[in-house]
Amino acid sequence: xxxMAKQADPRRWKALIFIAxxxxxxxxxxxxxxxxxxxxxxxxxISEGNKQWVITAYALAFGGLxxxxxxxxxxxxxxxxxxxxxxxxxxxxxxxGAAVNTGMLLGARALQGVFGAxxxxxxxxxxxxxxxxxxxxxxxxxxxxxxxxGGGAVGLILGGVLTEYMDWRWTFYVNIPFAAVAxxxxxxxxxxxxxxxxxxxxxxxxxxxxxxxxxSLVYGFTRAExxxxxxxxxxxLFIAAVVLLAAFVVVEGRVKxxxxxxxxxxxxxxxxxxxxxxxxxxxxFGLFLFLTYYLxxxxxxxxxxxxxxFLPMIATMITGSTQIGARLxxxxxxxxxxxPGFLVAALGMGLLTQLDTDSSYVGLILPAMLLLGLxxxxxxxxxxxxxxxxxxxxxxxxxxxxxxxxxxxxxxIGTALLNTIAASATTEYFKDHAQGATSAKSxxxxxxxxxxxxxxxxxxxxxxxxSAIAFTFVNTGPQSGHGAAATxxxxxxxxxxxxxxx
Length: 502
Fold this sequence. Notes:
By secondary structure, the chain is an all-alpha fold. 78% of the residues lie in helices and 0% in strands. It folds into 3 domains: 10-191, Up-down Bundle (Growth Hormone, Chain: A); 203-258, no CATH class; 263-475, Up-down Bundle (Growth Hormone, Chain: A). It is globular and about 70 Å long. The protein starts with a helix and ends in a 29-residue tail after the last helix.
C-alpha cells in the first residue's frame, strides 16, 4: 500500500474535473443536436430523406471507430489521444456550426463521431490508470457514471435553451469552450503512468473487420427504422455485420497483437457489464425518445420546458451514482448495486406505461423519472468501474472502448427497435378506432400515446433482462482491491501490473 500511495498522482482530482468535462461534451452531443434538428433542417433546406443522416453520420463514425480509438489510446498514450480527440471534436463542431449546406453539416457530424471515438475511451481509461485506490476510484467513477447516465438529459435541456433563445448553430459552437477548457486542463494537470502504454503493432485486419462490422450493425438498425426489418437492405446489413464480426473474433484469437484481446471479453464480469449496460441504454433511449415526444407533442411543452422536466431525473441519477453507488461499491458486490438498480429503473419505466393524453407530470411522470434516475445512477457507477477493474493497464483503452461500444450499439438498437414498435402500435390503434372517433386531433394524440406506452412496455422488459444478466454474470466481490482476483480473472495473463494493483 505505501508503494501505491507513492505512485498516486497528486493532481488526479483536478484531472478528474477536465476528464468529466470532456465526457459531458461527448455524451450531451448525442441528444443536443436532436432538439436543434428541426431548426437546422429548415435553415439549410435539408430534405426529409437526408434529415436522419444528421444523427446517423455521427452514430456510424462514433460506433464504428470506438474499438480503433481505444487501441490508439493504448498505443499513443491516453493523455495525447485525449487532447487530439478534444481538438478534433472542437474543430468539427466549429465546422458544423458554420455549415452552409447539407453536405457540410453531415461531414461535420461524421468528423465529430471520428474524434469522439478517440476521446471517449481515452477519458475512461485515464480514470482507470490514474485512480488505483479503491475508495478514490469509487468516488471518481461515481462522478463519471453520473455524467455518462445523465449527460443525455443535460443535452436536452441545453439544446432546448440554445435553440429557443439563440440559434441552432450554438448547439455546435457550445462544444468549443468545453473543449478549450478541457485541453488547457489536460496539458496542465493530466499525466498517466509511463508503463501503461501498449506499444504492440496495430492489428490492421482487426481494425478493418471491427470497424466495418460495427458500421454494418449500427447502420442496419438505422435502416430497419426507415425501411422495415424485412427489407433487403436491412437483412443484408445484418448478415454482413454477423459475418464481419464473427471473422473479427476468429482473427483476434489468432493474431499476435489483437485489436481486442479476447481476455477482455471472456472474463465473465466484464462480459456481464457490457451486455447489461448495452441493454440498459436501450431502455434509457426509450425514456428520452418517447417522453420528449410526449411532452412536446401531446402536452405541448416548449423545448426549454421539456428539458427542465428532466432535471429531477438528473438529480436522482447523480444521487444514485455518487451517494449510493460510490459509497457502497467497496463494501458490497457490484451485482447487488447493478441488479437492484436496473430493477428500480424498470419500476420507474413501468409507471410510464400508464401514460395517457392527460397524465399529470407531478402525479405520474415525476415519480417515474425519480425512480429511473435513482436506479440508473446506482447501476451505472459500479458498472463503469468494473468494466476496467483488474485489466492490465495496456488494455485499459480497449476495455474502456468496449463500454462505449456497448452503449453506442445499445442506443442504435433502442432507437430503431422502439421507434418501430411505437409506430406499428400507433398505426394499429388509429386503424381500429378511426370510425368511431369524434375528433381527428384527439384520435391522433391518443394513437401516439398508445404507441409510446407499447414501446415503453418493451423497454421495461429489456431493463428486467439487464437486471437478470447483472445478477447472473457479475459474481465478483466488492471492488476493494485484490488485483485480478477482484474481478474473477483467473488467468495469469490478466494479473495487473503494480500500477493497477488495488
